[in-house]
Write a structure and sequence with these properties.
Shape: elongated
Mean pLDDT: 79
Strand order of the largest sheet: 1-2
Oligomer: single chain
Order of helices and strands: HHHEHHEH
Length: 171
């Protein structure tokens, strides 16, 4: 049953992307795209990383990473930047405002379907925890960790995890 839900979620994602393509034909480029290109890139990156993580989980039957970038946060940032860019525009945009608002709603629906797919993937394959969810000890002093006793493989996994976080995968 979960696989049927995953297929339905992917079909909804495809439908949303198709509708987004139609809306994008009528959006003012200067105000809604060029002025907020960095926020759009961040949003698309969050979507792509989440889809890649789901694809890897389904192919390898491996758990999803514990932390994935928030597409909802990137969407909120993008929509506020687009709204600010539209307010600052000296041109009267008219119908373009409606298409821009429609794009915001479609992108919100895309985020909802993506979060649904992530939830389905987590229920099927679980979550690979990097950090345990148990609270830290209540002592005031910390004991430094001696990395010299670890195998080189553990150190390589730590470096790979830090590279993943630095690349935006752990935000």
């Amino acid at each position: 049953m979960q696989y049927c839900n995953a297929i339905s979620s992917l079909q909804a994602t495809l439908d949303v992307l198709t509708g987004l393509r139609t809306i994008r034909e009528h959006i003012p480029v200067r105000e809604a795209i060029s002025g907020v290109v960095n926020d759009r890139r961040e949003f698309v990156s969050c979507i792509c990383i989440s889809l890649y993580a789901c694809e890897h989980a389904f192919r390898a039957r491996q758990p999803l990473p514990q932390f994935l970038p928030s597409a909802r946060h990137a969407h909120t940032t993008l929509i506020s930047s687009v709204a600010e860019s539209m307010r600052q525009s000296p041109r009267t945009l008219g119908l373009s405002h409606a298409y821009t608002a429609a794009e915001g709603e479609v992108l919100a629906h895309l985020v909802d379907t993506l979060e649904s797919l992530l939830a389905i993937s987590r229920s099927l394959f679980g979550t690979a925890e990097w950090l345990p969810e148990e609270p830290a000890p209540a002592t005031s002093e910390t004991v430094p960790h001696d990395h010299s006793r670890e195998s080189p493989y553990v150190g390589q996994r730590r470096v790979a995890g830090l590279i993943w976080i630095a690349a935006g995968g752990g935000v």
